[in-house]
């Protein structure tokens, strides 16, 4: 199956939604089922009404993946930003994991507050996680329901699509410096797909063993596997179409929109192991019409067999 065909199948069964109102509540209900009832990361008694919420929800942009046939939410993610009227507002990573942020430069406190954000609360319900024995992970593949066999081929793409959604939110709102708390195996999986986060501190106990990671928005997807470009384009296109009608709910963009000609800040390339950064952000995209920078890579590392896929929790 071609890369574009797999992306088309994914989009036939799922849709990306820039969440608002009831859709945010649906995401909070998924978080309750996954983070509270299934894994015990949060206490059920602290989540009245079956909704897992916190003070950062009002400081976030939320996205969901919706299963078209059933209407069920198949996954959710949020991008936490600083408040437009309170640029010193903390990110969750600063409040709960600040003691683990050890990098001398890649630290939220040392970057422009209006440009920092955090990928958080990524979760996929058990019904859409297939891999047997994967019940220990809130983002992965476990037991099946009665879905079409063709749909199973797209299940490993759910977590990747949510990361692409978060990246599109960052791009469309002009944010630049992206943080996340995740388990190292997930960071390694993303790296194999060409999504390179830089670990900026040790593994600590926060919703299980996790480490703080950083990526600059202008670099996040420039090396993704060519096999993933059609999916990334489809996710970005879907959210871009919704963006104009939801601008009232977004933080004020404080810099230029995601510009593929931009280079990383001086000195950042060395910290990310990228040499002097020559040519970063200027390479030819892997597929025609792609708006994002990219370098041609080997063919697909995405295995459509869900039994071999793995993904782990974020935020």
In the CATH classification, which architecture applies? Answer: 3-Layer(aba) Sandwich
State the secondary-structure class.
alpha+beta
What's the number of helices?
Answer: 8
Mean pLDDT: 77
List the secondary-structure elements in sequence, H or E.
HEHEEHEHHEHEEEHH
CATH fold type = Aminopeptidase
Describe the global form. globular
User: What CATH first level would be assigned?
Assistant: Alpha Beta
Strand content: 15-25%
- Measured between the Cα atoms of the first and last residue, the distance is 33 Å
Q: Which sheet architecture does the biggest sheet show? A: 8 strands, mixed
- Gyration radius, to the nearest Å? 18 Å
User: Helical percent range?
Assistant: 25-40%
Say which CATH homologous superfamily is assigned: Gcn5-related N-acetyltransferase (GNAT)
Structure write-up:
- The protein is an alpha+beta fold and 315 residues long.
- The chain has one domain: Aminopeptidase.
- Helix content is 26%, strand content 15%.
- The chain contains 8 helices and 8 strands, in the order αβαββαβααβαβββαα.
- Strands 1, 2, 3, 4, 5, 6, 7 and 8 form an 8-stranded mixed beta sheet that branches.
- β2 (60-67) and β3 (73-81) form a beta hairpin.
- α1 packs across α7 and α5 (157-173) crosses α7 (229-243).
- The longest helix has 17 residues, at 22-38.
- The model is unreliable at 131-135, 139-146, 253-289 and 291-311 (pLDDT under 50).
């Amino acid at each position: 199956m071609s890369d574009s065909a797999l992306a088309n199948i994914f989009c036939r069964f799922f849709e990306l939604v820039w969440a608002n109102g009831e859709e945010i509540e649906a995401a909070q209900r998924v978080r309750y089922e996954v983070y509270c009832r299934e894994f015990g990361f949060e206490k059920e008694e602290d989540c009245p009404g079956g909704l897992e919420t916190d003070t950062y929800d009002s400081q976030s942009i939320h996205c969901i993946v919706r299963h078209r046939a059933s209407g069920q939410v198949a996954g959710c993610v949020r991008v936490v930003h600083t408040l437009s009227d309170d640029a010193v507002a903390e990110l969750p990573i600063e409040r709960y994991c600040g003691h683990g942020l050890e990098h001398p430069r890649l630290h939220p406190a040392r970057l422009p507050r209006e440009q920092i954000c955090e990928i958080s609360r990524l979760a996929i319900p058990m019904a859409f996680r297939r891999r047997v024995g994967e019940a220990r992970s809130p983002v992965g593949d476990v037991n099946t329901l009665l879905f079409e066999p063709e749909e199973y081929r797209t299940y490993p793409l759910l977590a990747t699509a949510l990361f692409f959604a978060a990246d599109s939110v960052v791009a469309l709102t002009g944010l630049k410096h992206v943080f996340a708390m995740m388990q190292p195996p997930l960071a390694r999986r993303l790296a194999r797909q060409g999504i390179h986060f830089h670990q900026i501190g040790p593994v600590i106990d926060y919703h299980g063993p996790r480490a703080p990671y950083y990526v600059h928005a202008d670099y996040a997807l420039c090396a993704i596997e060519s096999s993933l470009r059609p999916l990334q384009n489809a996710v970005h296109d879907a959210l871009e179409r919704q963006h104009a009608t939801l601008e009232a709910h977004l933080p004020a963009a404080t810099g230029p929109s995601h510009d593929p000609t931009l280079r990383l800040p001086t000195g950042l390339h060395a910290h990310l192991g990228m040499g002097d950064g020559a040519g970063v952000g200027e390479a030819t995209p892997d597929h025609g019409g792609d708006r994002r920078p990219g370098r041609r890579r080997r063919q697909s590392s995405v295995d459509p067999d869900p039994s071999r896929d793995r993904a782990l929790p974020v935020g």
